[in-house]
Fold DUF1273 family protein.
Amino acid sequence: MSPQCEKANMSALITTKQGNRVVNRATNRIYGFVGRDEALDAEKIYTGRDFPRLGLLGSPLGNYEYRVKNHSPAEHNRAVAAFRPWFEREMSKGRQGKASEVYQEVDRIADKLLQGQKVILTCFCAQGLPCHTRDVVQGAIIDRALEKQREQQFESERTGATKSSSKNSAALVDAVSEPTQPTIEEGIAALTRSSIGKCLALPINIYTRSPDWLGASLTNPTTIAEYWAAKGQSGIRDRFPVFFKGQFWKDAEEAYQHFKEDVPAGPERSKLMTDILKAKLEQYPELVKAIDKRGGRRWLETCEHKVNGGFWEGKGLKSPFIKCLAAAYERVSDRLNEKAASRTMTVAFSGSRSKYFTNPIWKRRAKRSLDEMVKTTFETAERLGYDRVCYISGCALGVDFWGAISALKARKQQRQGQLPSKPKIEVLAAIPCIGQEGTWKQADQRRYFKLLNLVDDLHLVSRDHYKNPGQLFERNSWMVERLSGRDDILAVVQVGESSGTQDTIEKARSQGKAVLRYSPETNKYSYEDGGDVQVKKLERFNSVPERKRSINQRSQIEL
C-alpha cells in the first residue's frame, strides 16, 4: 500500500470537533467533550485545559500558552502559533527518550488508530477558526501512528529475516560436514544493511550538480550549483551567502578560499572548514532539520563527496569534507535541540532611525529607555519562569542598533555574574538583505559588522542584495511573526510617526501583540497589552530621572 493510502486510512479514523455543548442544564450532566459518539461509533478524547467548574480534567495536549482572549481569527492565529512550538518541543523530548506527557498522550491515541478504533478529538475552539487540535495535534497523531506502523513492519521483517537466516544456516550445516562460514557472515551483513536502510534515507553525493536539493545545498560552492541549476543540472533551490568573521561571502567556498592561505594545511585547515560550515548551518537551520529527517550524523556518514578526486573528497568519514560537515552539524544540532526544549520569551526592537533624533536630548532619552526596557523584560521573563529571553534587532541605524547594544550589555552582565543566569539572554540580528549598509558612512558600516560578530544568531530575511525599501518592510513582518508567545512583546522607541516603525506597530496590533512604546519627545511610555506580560505600572518608567544611570550602563559594549 502506498504511503498516501496509508495516511488516508489513518485520517479516516480521526477527526476534530470544535465548540461542542458542555452541560445539560436540566440534569447538570456534562456531555459533548467526553464519552462516546454513538452516531459515529467513536471515542471522544478531550484535548483542552482543566475546567474544574465543568468537571473536565485537563489533557496533556492542553497548554496555558493556548489561551484566547476572544474568538477573533487574529487571536486564534496567535494562539495556535504559540501552541505549535511548545507542542513540537514536547514531541522532540519524547523522541529523545525524555519524559513528556504530550508525547505519551499522542502515542496512546496513535495506538487506537492502529487498532482501527475511531477517535474524535474535542476542544472549546469556536467552529471555523484556527484550532490547536485540528491544525497541530491531529496531524501529529496520524504521523505518529504511521511511524509506529512502519516500526512494526520493520520489526516483523527483521524477525522474519533472522528466522530465515537461521534456517539457511541450519540447512547448510546439514548439507555439508562443516558450516560454510562466509555464507552466514554474508547473511548477517545483508541483515545489517537492511536494518540501516530502514532507518536512514538513501545516501547521496554532496556536490554542486547533485539533483538532490540538499546535496547541492550542503556543498561549499553553492554559487556554482546555482549556475548548474539555471541549466537544469542541479537541485539547489536557494542562495546560501555566509556571514563569517565580520563579512558576508557569496558562499562558504569564497570564505574558505579567502582564509585558507593564512592557515597551515592539516588540522588547522580542517578546523577552518568546520567553523565555516558551522556558521552556514547556524544561519540556515532548515539544512539541519533536513539532515535530521534523513537520519542525522549517521546519514551523513553514509554519503560521499566526489567531484574530481581532490583532497576533500571521499566516501563517508574518509572524506575530510564530510568529516568536517558531520562535526559542524552535530554542534549546531545539539544547540538547536537545546533551544527547542526551552521556553523562550521574545522581545523585538523597533523604532525611528537616527536621523529623526534631531534633538540630542531625545537620543539620550531613547538609549536610557531601551536600557530600562531590557531590564524590565528580563525581570518579567525571570518571574514567569522562562529558560531564555531572545532580543531581536532589525539592525538599522538608530533604535534597532541601540536596542541591540542594550541587550548585549545585559548579556555581558549575565556572563559576568551580575545578573541571574536564567533566563539566558540571547540576541538575534534580523537582517533584511545583503548590503543594507551600502549607503552608510564607513564608521557606521564598521560598527554594523562588529555588531553582527557579537550577536548569538543571525537571520537573513532576504538572501538577495538590497533592491528597494520593500525588503525593510518584509524584515519588519518577519520580526512581528516571531512574537508568537503569549508573553512576547514589541519594544518601540518612536519620534513622530516614522513610516517603517508605524508599519511594524500596526502589524503587531492587528495580530494582538503586546506593544511597549516610548516617546522621547514627551518622555512618556504607553503600553498596549496583547498578552499577559505584567509590566509594572508605567509610572515605574515615567518616574525614572533622566540623569539616573541604568543598570545596563555599568557594562559598556564598545562598537
